[in-house]
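If you are new to this repository, start here. Below is one unmodified record pulled from the training split, so you can see the exact layout before writing a loader.
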Amino acid sequence: MFLAEDYSSEIRGALVIAWFAFSLYWAAVCGYVATEKGRRETAWAFAGFFGWFLALIPLAAAPSLYAPTQPVPARRRTDED
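And here is the target side for that same chain:
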């Protein structure tokens, strides 16, 4: 007869591995976004490891610390050109 207790340790081990893999993924995503925005990569990667996508929400909403680049205005043509 099939008993669920027979496989509980394997299922638990697979869930731990899956949680760890997803945590590493979200840590990498949050670290990358933090780097692109000029924020502290290590702190946001740590938050992403434990908070998954919930850590990405405030990071995505935060403005970049880099100076915004302004497009170069087009020069108006005059009759002298």
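Two things worth knowing about this chain: The CA atoms of residues 27 and 80 lie 57 Å apart. The first helix runs from residue 8 to 37.
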